[in-house]
Design goal:
- The complex is a heterotrimer of chains A (258), B (248) and C (254).
- Helix content of chain A is 79%, strand content 0%.
- Chain A has 258 residues and is mainly α.
- Chain A has 2 domains: 30 residues; 223 residues, MetI-like fold (Orthogonal Bundle), CATH 1.10.3720.
- In chain A, helix 5 packs across helix 7.
- The longest helix of chain A has 39 residues.
- Chain B contains 11 helices and no strands.
- Chain B has a single domain, classed as MetI-like fold (Orthogonal Bundle).
- Helix content of chain B is 82%, strand content 0%.
- The radius of gyration of chain C is 20 Å and the shape is globular.
- With 254 residues, chain C is α/β, with parallel strands linked by helices.
- Chain C has 11 helices and 12 strands.
- Helices cover 38% and strands 20% of the residues of chain C.
- A 5-stranded mixed beta sheet of chain C has the order 4-1-5-12-6. Chain C has a 5-stranded mixed beta sheet with strand order 9-8-10-7-11, with helices on both faces.
- The chains are: A mainly alpha (258), B mainly alpha (248), C alpha/beta (254).
- At the A-B interface, helix 2, helix 4, helix 5, helix 9 and helix 11 of A face helix 4, helix 5, helix 8, helix 9 and helix 10 of B.
Amino acid sequence: MISLKELAQPHRIVMMVLFALFVLWCAISLRWDWIPKYAPLALEGLWTTIWILAVSTFLGFLLAIPLGLTQAIGPWYLSVPARTFCTIIRGTPLLLQIWLLYYGLGSLFPQFPWIRSSELWPYLRQAWPYAVTALTLSYAGYEGEVMRGAFSSVAKGQLEAAKSFGMPRFTMFRRIWLPQAIGNVLPTLGGETILQLKATPLVATITVVEIYSVSSRVRSDTFIVYEPLLLLALVYMVIAGLIGLAFKRFENRLPDRS
Amino acid sequence: MTGLLEILGLGASAELLSLSGWGGNLLRGLANSLQIAFGAFGLGLVIGLFGAYGKLYGGKVTRDLLAIYTTVIRAVPELVLILILYYVGSDIINQISEAMGGGRVEINGVAAGIWVLGVVQGAYATEVLRGAIQAVPTGQIEAAKSYGMPAIMIMRRVTIPAMMSFAVPGLANLWLIATKDTALLAVVGFNELTLETRQAASSTRAYFTFFLAAGFLYLMVTLCSGAVFARIEKWARRGQPSLKEGSA
Amino acid sequence: MKLKTLLVAATAAAALTAGAATAEQVKIGIAAEPYPPFSSLDSSGNWVGWEIEVINAVCAAAELDCVITPVAWDGIIPSLTGQQIDAIMASMSITEERLKTIDFSDPYYNTPAVIVADKSMDIAPTPDSLAGKIVGIQASTIHQAYAQEYFKGAELKVYQTQDEANQDLFAGRIDATQADSIAMADFVNSGNGSCCEIKGAVADDPAILGRGVGAGVRKGETELLEALNKGIAAILADGTHEKITAGYFTTSIY
């Protein structure tokens, strides 16, 4: 964290004053009268953004563990599909993946009339399951690659030691390998989660009402362009900052490996 | 070939994707995407090089401003940045041009796309290049200084060649991000691959076929770039001990 | 050597950005997303459709050197005010709300707003009938404004293009959609639209639904506005409008 003394340098004070003037100018000369009307919608959108981010990150990470593990030590019939999956996810734009999942699958529905009478239909109708699926798969693809490295970098000696104690394979994985691999990736995990946050606005293109789509709604209702976008950028910066802080605290709780 | 496609029931898809059909549109979109990605990557490199030097050797104010730039760009979603830069960019250029007494400036789609993505790429490139420059042993730069080499010459003859091998993996990653980020320009209406795909898909209703075809094209770009960057990395590392022996 | 390459690249980028200023050309903005039968892309990459022909005819009559410039529909008004385009001719209705930001020419076509739904569904174009239903609408349209005002009981899904709303109607993800009658007539006659039918026009509200479709220009650009008005009047008077319409529709849409 930056200490107060560092902030109190003359040029920083000047910059802060300039920034305060800029904020003041924004507050006075730009239009903010739309905020009260759209505040409830914006809060709803913010909540959607956050839960989609949380759910897709969590599920994606769970999926990344087997993806990483099979790539690191799996037999070829598991590692090849895992590697192919990661390559495809990382090699194509997420926007395209989202559209393929939502509109591509949607265009196939009418060919199978029984889908509409199935139990799953109420969910298949909505947009969020597709959004969560696409984001989860994307996170898993990127994180699977990271986990592969993390699993391979756990010191072999430790695993051999555990083996010589007669530890069963699964216990060894659960108690030694996985915790160390997760410890290895934690520093990058915060950054990856922020990248995932930056991917969430894409789901607005398939009618999910999250915070980005609220700003589009303001723009289309009132033709105010910059103000909602500036506020939106600020909101994302705050969330990204909070994620960064959270991961830092989490990291500090782990014993230092060096 | 045609017979095989018919047997597999893909005859209709093949016809849609043929060059005389919508396949030509997809390829034109791909060409646009690559053009924008290439320009943005180049612009990003230029910004990144100056940014990295500024962060390492610049004054206090420069360093703080660059820190703000990289932090903001890396925290705000590309989609939001693209919208802001797209609308603000043309506004500013026109105002500058009018203030200087010039007329309105035409901004073509490709140039606007390059500007928008280039500014985003610049922030990431700054970090990549800064790390790479820092990895160059200071002794080499000091040696060049003691010979009385001017700063620009040191940069050109010592720092940049020496940092290349450290920078290439990060830059390869940035290039892939650039190619994929061009897809976001579809939302502001640029005729790149993703928008062409969307137009083709909605005109023919063959959503699945076209999205898969576009995915395949992007994947090809990624795989080919991977091969190219592997060669570049090999070239940048020439004369250095191999990684496996070097990193003990 | 590297530095020189970089400098060359930077100069090239700068040169690209600051292309020569050509004041005479009029950039007519259309929606980059296809909107058949008014504007759509053919497989060789050309824009075709009723509105494209009208744009060309109006520009010819007004002696304007027009270039058709596709921009995202969702940001088409900001693109106009931000000077990326000079006029909007993208089936945009003349409404009070839009007139606060931009000016409009005289209307060049008019079409009622209708509700389209699955044939098997018993849906009427009224707020009561649509309550509890999922209604799809295109962003930044009069239909979005109308649905938000009148169909408060319905769940509204906002799409970037009408085409995507149609696609989801076909897929069964939405129960109904509100859109222009002509575009919808085209849709229900197409292969995928066979699922659905026009359930009727919504009750008119001129304040929201506007008074026909006109060309949008920046406020204060009276010269261009007058030229466009002249062009529209000319093609209406000399039968060009009628002739173009006959190529697409069976009835007059003015």
